[in-house]
């Protein structure tokens, strides 16, 4: 479940990076519609429910190793950002 959660975090972070770039093209590509740009950067149809399912499964299966869930998700986010930055 951690692997699937990390993959969904990666898709979310990638969408945020795409949105940060597409903000500058709102007028030319999306006729000023922020929602069109948002839907082009995030495929929430698939990743939204999958992120919710993976996140809740990961939280349910967490061993209780003494580390907070936020720390686990933060480390997964940092690892996925590093992978995106290095192009792996």
From TrEMBL:
Record GO biological process: activation of innate immune response; autophagosome assembly; defense response to virus; innate immune response; positive regulation of macroautophagy; positive regulation of type I interferon production; reticulophagy
All residue ranges annotated as the STING transmembrane domain in the record: 2-88
Chain ranges passing through the membrane: none
Pfam families: STING_TM
Recorded GO CC terms: autophagosome; endoplasmic reticulum membrane
InterPro entries: STING, STING_TM
Gene Ontology MF term list: 2',3'-cyclic GMP-AMP binding; cyclic-di-GMP binding
Matching PANTHER family: STIMULATOR OF INTERFERON GENES PROTEIN
Name the record gives this protein: STING protein
Native source organism of the sequence: Smutsornis africanus
Gene: Tmem173_1
């Amino acid at each position: 479940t951690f692997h699937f959660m990390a993959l969904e975090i990666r898709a979310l972070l990638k969408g945020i990076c795409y949105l940060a770039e597409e903000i500058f093209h709102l007028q030319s590509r999306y006729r000023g519609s922020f929602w069109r740009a948002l839907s082009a950067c995030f495929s929430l149809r698939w990743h939204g429910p999958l992120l919710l399912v993976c996140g809740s499964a990961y939280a349910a299966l967490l061993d209780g190793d003494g580390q907070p869930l936020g720390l686990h998700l933060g480390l997964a986010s940092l690892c996925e950002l590093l992978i995106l930055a290095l192009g792996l």
